[in-house]
Amino acid sequence: MAMAGLYRRVLPSPPAIDFASFEGKKLFTEAIHNGTMEGFFKLISYFQTQSEPAYCGLASLSMVLNALAIDPGRRWKGPWRWFDESMLDCCEPLEKVKDKGISFGKVVCLAHCAGANVKAFRTNQSTFDEFRKYVMECSSSDDCHLISSYNRGTFKQTGTGHFSPLGGYHAGRDMALILDVARFKYPPHWIPLKLLWDAMNTIDEATGQQRGFMLVSRHQREPALLYTLSCKDESWTSTAKYLMDDVPILLSEDSGKDVKNVLSTVFTSLPSNFSEFIKWVAEVRRRDDGDQGLSQEEKGRLAIKEEVLKQVQETGLYKMVTDLLSTEKFVCQFKQTSDQRDCLPNIAATVCCQGAGIFAGISGSSNRFCCRETCVRCYRATNGVKPVTVVSGTVVNGNGEHGVDMLVPLSQTETSSCSSGSCGSFGMHPASNDVLTALLLALPPETWSGIRDEKVSQEIFGLVSTDSLPPLLQGEIIHLRGQLLMLKRCNDNKVEEDLGAPQI
Question: Which of 118, 220, 307, 321 shows the smallest number of beta carbons within 10 Å?
Fold first, then answer.
């Protein structure tokens, strides 16, 4: 016998007050006048319903990340970079989340890896008075949002563990507005703050840990300007294990005579798919109506990426890596990465086929598309901004033609022979030596502590130190290091033990 479907639930009131009720509207109006609904308007602009019954943590986080206007650095659908539940999969497989939900610690991990600034507290790490202070601070600002992990049963609601953001606070009644992401079940509602604390002050049976709350805000500048870790690709687990676990052991067992020998030890055993672990943040767009120009925003963004890449290449470590990779021993090992996959015409052919599929809303195989032409264009700026490079192509499929552009930071910057709109085959996008330099800089300092020779150890620490890096590159590397450490903690199931930001 088929079971009848469920259409919402009646909100138990008291203790909750429906946001859309007369009393709920009155609380809302009073809270606005008292200045404790500032965060509400950005959150409500990006309010979403969780797409799966167990996706409350993912929906709450993607809603908050979008409200904070944090750029995910990768595409959602079409050309759009946008946080969606399906993109928050680096700490826990989505199928597992769909089946069992996600823990508080792993939502904190996801927020860190997505590029947010996060402060998280279990109830045994804070007090009710401190919680009220944080609620008031976030409710009085639109650049900080609070996500609560609580037990529904405390509110006489059906279900157990749940996540939702807080949309505001009424000081006179000491009540918080919960923007419940399970809108198919309960509407947004006001709840006494002390009762919310009691609901958080419960044990999650899956982890044996108390629930809590997190404060999510933006960093002062956008992280992952040029590089970001690719957590979606299956290669990240093997590459992360090698870099974080195997390399320190290899270095402690090897009697490296000089820096070149130490780097050779690291490179010799690199997983074959290491280049998929760290991605350069490229941007794909579609040319419509014959428009081939770049906006000032696009030019400015490319100029910043070029500067990050330039700063990578000006480090002493980059020069050492480049010299080593040019030796006969490593030429064959990196031939595929550096000679074939990094060549701009090859990138153009790949990007144009895949780009057409992306714009058509089709992912996966690109064999249904045909590249009619690809080329590299260099756009000269008239206002002193550096020239910008675009890989362009015209792709033909059954629905017509699609013009696709990919904005590319160059490794080789000799562009004097390039004229606006002209095609060519010069240059490379961030290549193996750039990627390896960034990865080596991002490794935790303790990675190198096992080097036996004191002189070599000092030289290595001088090369990989972030202290002397320019602020732009320093921020990029520190973000990469934070991602790497957080992902390792997540993979080792240690995120529940310490909710603090990774020690970088």
Answer: 220
Sign of torsion over alpha carbons 118, 121, 125, 126: positive
Q: Which two tokens stand for residue 22?
A: 């007369």
Q: Which of 491, 494, 498 is nearest to 231 (CA)?
A: 491
Helical H segments across 190-342, by residue range: 193-200, 235-241, 247-253, 259-268, 296-313, 316-325, 328-331, 335
Q: Within 13 Å of residue 111, how many CA atoms lie on the same side as its CB?
A: 34
CB 440 within 8 A of CB 266: yes
Q: By three-state DSSP, how is residue 238 classified?
A: helix
User: Which of 112, 180, 353, 402 is an active site residue?
Assistant: 180
Catalytic: which of 112, 145, 162, 429? 162
pTM: 0.72
Return the number of other C-beta atoms located less than 10 Å from residue 172's C-beta. 10
- Token pair listed for 17: 């007050």
- Report the C-alpha gap between 369 and 75 in whole angstroms: 20
Dihedral pair phi/psi, residue 229, rounded to 5°: -80, 140
Cβ neighbors of 492 (< 8 A, separation 6 or more) are none
Contact 215, 118 (CB under 8 A): yes
Q: Is the separation of the CB atoms in 37 and 167 below 8 Å?
A: yes
The DSSP bridge pattern shows strands 370-379 and 388-397 to be antiparallel
Could you give the CA distance from residue 397 to residue 56 in angstroms, rounded to a whole number?
A: 39
Measured in degrees and rounded to the nearest 5, phi and psi for residue 283 equal -135, 130
All domains of the chain in start order, with CATH: 17-217 (3.90.70.30), 227-436 (no CATH)
> Known catalytic residue: 56?
yes
Cis? peptide before 14, omega within 30° of 0: yes
Question: Beta-carbon neighbour count of residue 24 at 10 Å?
Answer: 20
Spatial separation of the C-alpha atoms in residues 437 and 239, rounded to whole Å: 15
Q: What angle do CA 225, 226, 230 make, to 5 degrees?
A: 105
Pairwise CA distance, residues 375 & 126, whole Å: 58
What does pLDDT average to in each consecutive run of 10 residues of the chain (504 residues)? 74 94 97 96 94 95 94 76 86 85 91 87 95 96 95 94 97 97 95 97 93 91 73 66 86 80 86 73 65 71 85 92 78 50 55 53 47 63 62 66 71 41 42 84 89 88 91 88 79 68 47
CA gap 368, 479 in Å, rounded: 38
Q: Mark whether 343 is an active-site residue.
A: no
Say how far apart CA 457 and CA 450 lie, in whole Å: 8
